[in-house]
Design a protein that fits this description.
The chain has 213 residues and is an alpha/beta fold. The protein contains 5 helices and 14 strands. It has helices spanning 35-45, 65-72, 83-87, 167-178, 197-203, and strands at 2-8, 13-20, 25-29, 48-53, 76-79, 108-110, 115-118, 121-127, 136-140, 145-149, 152-153, 156-157, 186-189, 195-196. β5 (76-79), α3 (83-87) and β6 form a beta-alpha-beta unit. The chain is globular. The N and C termini lie far apart (36 Å).
Length: 213
């Protein structure tokens, strides 16, 4: 499996292209902005997108969702409960940055532990509320790759000062759903560099193994 990271928008969101180089099929995760940049990268990579996957519905992760869906005529997947944010500029925080926006209603709302099968892509859904009510992560169990959105970062965790957030719930989600994964799993967050479960379990200052804050 191939991971291509495209950093988009003023908030430097990591949009991920995740695809099988042999089958030439894949998915687009969190197209936060700059749809033409994303489309150009997809065309250069030479694969057919099968869906847009969202880790959560905050404005910086959704601005390019509609044009990407329209361009490729593909469906949208998101966590159950996150559809409320996608439809409400005040909840997805776009109102507060002066550019109210919404995203289309998801074609599929995903639940915890659900298996998403899209061509050669097989991803396990891990519900990780806290940064947002319906936030989820996508785990490729075979490849050992985790797309964790704004739940977990290199040396940090997601913000919890937005509507519908909870710091206690976020930490519980991380420690119950993510830190129990094999230490070698590679984490691809919504912002910043990639990391590993083992590295965060040992060194992240917000988590129990990294000298709790």
């Amino acid at each position: 499996m191939k991971v291509k990271t495209i950093v988009v928008g003023p908030f430097q969101v990591n949009c991920y292209l995740y695809y099988d180089e042999t089958a030439r099929e894949g998915v687009i995760i969190d197209p936060g902005a700059e749809e033409q940049v994303i489309i150009k990268a997809v065309d250069k990579a030479g694969f057919r997108p099968l869906a847009v996957l969202l880790t959560h519905g905050h404005a910086d992760h959704i601005a390019a969702v509609a044009p990407i869906m329209t361009h490729y005529r593909i469906p949208l997947f998101a966590g159950k409960g996150e559809e409320v944010l996608l439809a409400d500029p005040s909840l997805n925080m776009s109102t507060f940055v002066g550019n109210p926006l919404t995203a289309p209603t998801p074609d599929t709302l995903l639940k915890d532990n659900e298996l998403v099968q899209l061509g050669p892509i097989e991803l396990r859904v891990l519900a990780t509320p806290g940064h947002s009510p319906g936030g989820i992560c996508y785990l490729d169990e075979r490849a050992g790759n985790l797309f964790c959105g704004d739940t977990l970062f290199w040396g940090s965790v997601g913000r919890t000062d937005f509507p519908g957030c909870s710091h206690e719930q976020l930490i519980d989600s991380i420690e119950r759903q993510l830190l129990t994964l094999p230490p070698g799993v590679t984490c691809f967050p919504g912002h910043g560099p990639s990391t590993t479960i083992g590295g965060e379990k040992t060194n992240n200052p917000f988590l129990s193994g990294g000298h709790i804050v």
